[in-house]
């Protein structure tokens, strides 16, 4: 765990907030995104317990700053490729919570009308090109989207988020080599939350930092950051986007963070050593960022207003989803093929 | 009209589509500067340039993943997997990613791409470079699966596959690359999901695919000449979509069905056709449907052994004759 060494701004911080490289407006946007994810994931968890969220679900509680920081640095046309732990990244791109929760609740109002489920959240209109549940698959896929941008002269960047466990699968290494040799505008973001599923990543990896320590093998800069610090994430993302848009190729960024909950719905996370969660909770990204905003001079009223409006939005969305019908059987056979149907024979 | 090899027909089909549509791009191992290990893509790099025809590392997952990402965002990629046996190292994309993305996203994500691959035996390459994997692909909802047997079909079906909005697995038979056939000048565009009756007949229907097609035709000629049995030979051409109407119509006419499959026996494509025929035209059958397949074994490398296990014209002749005349 990286030590907290950040300098706290003191007097005069309020003036610098508006004028620094991030600025108040961007910080409030990122804070709001963190709150949407935090409250949204907590609501999803509560709804599991009521058996209203079905199937499996992988929460990003504790990892909000990565999603908020990267989304804050993205342009609307940039593309996100997520894993099954993708609620946060989907929400951070502006996908309505109601559509995400609807999918988690497997209702007709869900993003994919219940055909994909929690692990496959996708909203192409928001640049969320999919959540991939087979570890590693979306790294090469993000390369392909970046290849299209390079070939067509589009200036969008593909961002691929994945966990620490992904760094030990072949597709990770194939994709990194491929992205470098083709100099593709793609950013690989490893969210190192210390556990692959139940096993500590350090127990099964040859190097201490599963992504950053592999960067040199592909001629890339070693980038290891505090993934719980939204500003640090945002600034790192900005640099990677600038590099990608300049045609200088991919970046690999390892963000240190911690998963507050278990791997999935079924996991009580009993494998954690005593005291570990408590230690990480002290650097919980959401209150940390809230405090920073206060120190920067943002009023409690402004912050409280954001929190209250998000809470209301989540409450309203929950009611909409509860009232939404289940998907109808007629969609079972739609969209297997491009003609809209499923016919494999005449 | 010109005589073209099956091998040259591949480059002709790709070139026709790349000429027509700038969104068509092509990637694979040794496909660009070297023109492909089977020399199927000679000249494309020189003609269309390094941005559209690209050599890749030996990274089958990266090849198929990149093709998918490009397809999802507006290109029409063609990816080559050198040997179809290598599908096993990138099967996630074939089984999980290409075919399910449209469905899982409720139609948001589209994956219009073609995976070309060298399929089938006859080159004495042994059990990991000779397999016929069409049945691996046919069983996956969301894929289309095409396997031409002649140069003209290579051009027309490849063009149709590239223009198709769904992911298509295009299986080229390695042992057919050197075969020749007449190919008309100008644009050729065929239709997926259409079988072809290559030889009309009244006594028995023989359904074949890829390299089994010329062998079935040769057997049919011998059956006519030596046993007086008049066989109708159908080239399936496309397993998905499957032209069942042509097959069912033929079986209704002849009363007998034989499938000739190169894939190992269990779950071969012929089993599905036999099942459809049994379900739908059972009472038109005059005898049991019969599958002629490679036995359920890994393929041996030695020529003398490989020749013994693959269905050939003699085996087809014997099986049909014995079945119809005892």
| Largest sheet strand order of chain A | 2-1-3-4-6-5
| Strand residues, percent of chain A | 5-15%
Instruction: Write the H/E string of chain B, N to C.
Output: EHEHEHEHEHEHEEEEHEEHEHEHH
Report the sheet-strand fraction of chain B. 15-25%
Mean model confidence by pLDDT of chain A: 94
Oligomeric composition of the shown chains: heterodimer
Largest interface: A-B, 52 and 52 residues
Give the helix/strand class of chain A: alpha/beta
Shape of chain B: globular
Distance between the ends of chain B: 44 Å
Number of DSSP strand runs of chain B = 14
Give the helix proportion of chain B (percent range).
25-40%
Which secondary-structure class do the elements of chain B indicate?
alpha/beta
Number of strands of chain A: 6
Biggest pleated sheet of chain B = 7 strands, mixed
What's the number of helices of chain B?
11
Radius of gyration of chain A: 20 Å
Structure description:
The complex is a heterodimer of chains A (346) and B (326). Chain A is built from 11 helices and 6 strands. Chain A has 346 residues and is of the alpha/beta class. In chain A, strands 2-1-3-4-6-5 form a 6-stranded parallel sheet, with helices on both faces. In chain A, helix 2 (23-49) packs antiparallel against helix 10, helix 3 (64-73) runs parallel beside helix 8 (230-245) and helix 5 crosses helix 11 (300-323). The longest helix of chain A has 27 residues, at 23-49. The radius of gyration of chain A is 20 Å and the shape is globular. With 326 residues, chain B is an alpha/beta fold. Chain B contains 11 helices and 14 strands. Chain B has helices at residues 6-20, 44-48, 60-72, 91-104, 134-138, 151-163, 212-227, 244-254, 269-281, 303-309, 313-325; strands at 2-5, 24-28, 53-55, 76-83, 114-119, 144-146, 168-173, 180-183, 196-199, 204-208, 231-235, 238-240, 257-264, 290-294. In chain B, the strands form 3 sheets. Chain B has a 7-stranded mixed sheet, with helices on both faces. In chain B, strands 9-11-10-13-14 form a 5-stranded mixed sheet, with helices on both faces. In chain B, helix 1 (6-20) runs parallel beside helix 6 (151-163) and helix 3 packs parallel to helix 4 (91-104). Chain B is globular and about 60 Å long. The model of chain B has no long low-confidence stretch (mean pLDDT 98). Chains A and B meet through strand 2, helix 6 and helix 7 of A and helix 3 and helix 4 of B.
């Amino acid at each position: 765990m990286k030590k907290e060494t950040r300098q706290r701004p003191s007097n005069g911080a309020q003036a610098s907030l508006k004028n620094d490289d991030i600025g108040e407006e961007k910080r409030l946007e990122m804070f709001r995104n963190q709150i949407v994810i935090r409250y949204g994931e907590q609501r999803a968890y509560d709804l599991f317990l009521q058996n209203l969220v079905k199937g499996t679900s992988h929460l990003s509680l504790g990892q909000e700053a990565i999603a908020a920081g990267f989304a804050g640095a993205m342009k609307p046309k940039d593309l996100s490729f997520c894993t099954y732990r993708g609620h946060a990244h989907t929400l951070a791109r502006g996908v309505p919570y109601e559509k995400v929760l609807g999918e988690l609740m497997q209702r007709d109002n869900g993003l994919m009308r219940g055909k994909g489920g929690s692990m496959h959240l996708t909203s192409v209109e928001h640049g969320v090109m999919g959540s991939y549940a087979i570890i590693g698959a979306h790294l090469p896929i993000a390369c392909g989207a970046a290849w299209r941008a390079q070939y067509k002269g589009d200036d969008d960047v593909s961002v691929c988020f994945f966990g620490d466990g992904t760094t030990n699968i072949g597709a990770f290494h194939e994709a990194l080599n491929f992205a470098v040799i083709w100099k593709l505008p793609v950013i690989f973001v490893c969210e190192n939350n210390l556990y692959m599923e139940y096993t500590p990543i350090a127990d099964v990896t040859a190097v201490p930092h599963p992504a950053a320590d592999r960067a040199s093998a592909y001629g890339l800069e070693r980038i290891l950051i505090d993934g719980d610090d939204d500003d640090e994430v945002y600034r790192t993302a900005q640099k990677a986007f600038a590099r990608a848009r300049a045609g200088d190729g991919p970046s690999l960024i390892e963000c240190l963070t911690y998963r507050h909950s278990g791997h999935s719905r079924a996991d009580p996370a009993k494998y954690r050593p005593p005291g570990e969660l408590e230690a990480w909770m002290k650097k919980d990204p959401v209150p940390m960022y809230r405090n920073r905003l206060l120190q920067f001079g943002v009023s409690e009223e402004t912050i409280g207003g954001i929190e209250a409006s998000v809470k209301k939005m989540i409450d309203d969305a929950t009611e909409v989803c509860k009232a939404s019908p289940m998907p109808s059987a007629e969609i079972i056979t739609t969209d297997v093929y491009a003609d809209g149907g499923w016919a494999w024979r005449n | 009209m010109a005589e073209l090899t099956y091998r040259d027909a591949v480059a002709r089909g790709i070139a026709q589509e790349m000429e027509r549509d700038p969104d068509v791009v092509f990637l694979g191992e040794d496909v660009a500067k070297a023109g492909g290990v089977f020399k199927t893509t000679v000249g494309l790099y020189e003609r269309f340039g390094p941005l559209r025809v690209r050599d890749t590392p030996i990274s089958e997952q990266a090849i198929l993943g990149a093709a998918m990402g490009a397809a999802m965002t507006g290109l029409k990629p063609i990816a080559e997997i050198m040997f179809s046996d290598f599908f096993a190292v990138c099967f996630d994309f074939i089984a999980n990613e290409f075919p399910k993305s449209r469905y899982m996203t409720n139609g948001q994500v589209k994956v219009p791409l073609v995976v070309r691959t060298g399929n089938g035996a006859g080159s004495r390459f042994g059990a990991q470079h000779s397999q016929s994997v069409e049945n691996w692909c046919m069983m996956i909802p969301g894929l289309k699966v095409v396997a031409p047997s002649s140069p003209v079909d290579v051009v027309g079906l490849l063009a149709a596959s590239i223009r198709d909005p769904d992911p298509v697995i295009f299986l080229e038979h390695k042992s057919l690359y050197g075969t020749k056939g007449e190919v008309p000048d100008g644009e050729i565009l065929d239709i997926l999901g259409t079988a072809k009756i290559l030889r009309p007949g009244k006594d028995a229907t023989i359904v074949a695919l890829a390299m089994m097609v010329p062998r079935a035709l040769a057997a049919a000629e011998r059956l006519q000449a030596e046993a007086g049995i008049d066989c109708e030979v159908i080239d399936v051409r496309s397993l998905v979509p499957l032209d069942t109407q042509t097959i069912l119509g033929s079986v209704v006419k002849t009363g007998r069905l034989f499938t000739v499959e190169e894939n190992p026996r269990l779950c071969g494509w012929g089993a599905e056709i036999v099942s459809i025929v049994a379900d739908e035209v059972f009472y038109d059958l005059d005898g049991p449907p019969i599958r002629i397949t490679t036995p359920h074994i890994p393929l041996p490398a030695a020529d003398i052994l490989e020749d013994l296990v693959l269905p050939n014209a003699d085996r087809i002749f014997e099986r049909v004759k014995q079945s119809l005349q005892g």
